[in-house]
Specification:
Layout lengths: L1 H41 L6 H41 L21 H4 L6 H24 L10 H90 L1
Length: about 240
């Protein structure tokens, strides 16, 4: 039972050491990823070379410090691991499961001195040197970019062109308004012509009715004439018969 407890304590310290090592590895990965992403972003935004350069240097230094912190903490856990092995080998079970690494503060270098460790300074120094060279090249390229003559327009020319465009817009608006007025007048004329044609149709219908009435009157007159002619003929025959008698 005693050996099992000691193994669990050792495993706990080893897990802390492994976690610090993994954190250090992840910080290095983030440093490379952010630097490369900034270089890619800079190819589209060359006008922010200097601010982005300052930002990248700040990020690299911050991650460098964080990496040194994890390495510094890992060294403290390693010292604790060694002391625990020595104590447990002598059957000293004092401070069991007590993980206090603050007592090793004087036995390890400070975080700033750890930043100059031979495992950290080559990585971050090369990363910063590469960033400096890249930013210098980008700054020189941005200065050497020649603005095409077509874009070299003075403020007065831009102002005159703006006024010209504004005048053209006003003229176009007035033309559109005139077209609208003419369209409205044409529509009114069309409406008036419809009214005229309706009146003309009404007059034709009235004339047709008058013609029909006149035809009826003529037909009645013809009938009366025929009747009068028949009556006259009958009277004439009666008169002849009376004379013969």
């Amino acid at each position: 039972m005693k050996e099992e407890i000691i193994h669990k304590e050792i495993d706990l310290i080893q897990n802390c050491i492994s976690r610090m090592a993994n954190n250090s590895f992840m910080v290095k990965g983030w440093a490379v990823t952010i630097t490369v992403a900034s270089f890619a972003f800079l190819s589209f935004k060359r006008e922010i070379v200097i601010p982005l350069c300052i930002f990248i240097f700040g990020i690299i230094i911050a991650l460098w410090y964080l990496d040194a912190f994890f390495l510094h903490t890992e060294k403290k856990f390693r010292l604790l691991y060694q002391d625990v092995l020595k104590k447990r080998a002598m059957d000293d079970c004092s401070n069991l499961y007590e993980i206090d690494i603050s007592i090793y503060k004087d036995k390890t270098n400070s975080i700033f001195r750890t930043m100059l460790n031979k495992t950290l300074i080559p990585f971050y120094a090369v990363l910063m040197l590469f960033s400096i060279v890249f930013f210098i090249i980008e700054i020189n390229d941005s200065k050497e970019v020649n603005i095409p003559a077509v874009y070299e327009v003075s403020f007065s020319e831009l102002s005159s062109k703006y006024k010209e465009v504004e005048k053209n817009i006003l003229d176009a608006e007035s033309d559109i308004e005139m077209i609208f007025i003419e369209t409205r007048n044409i529509q009114q004329e069309i409406n008036d012509s419809h009214i005229y044609f309706e009146d003309f149709e009404n007059q034709i219908v009235s004339l047709q009715e008058n013609v029909s009435s006149l035809s009826s009157q003529i037909e009645n007159l013809e009938n009366k004439i025929l009747q009068f002619s028949a009556e006259s003929k009958a009277n004439t025959e009666k008169t002849k018969l009376k004379k013969e008698l």
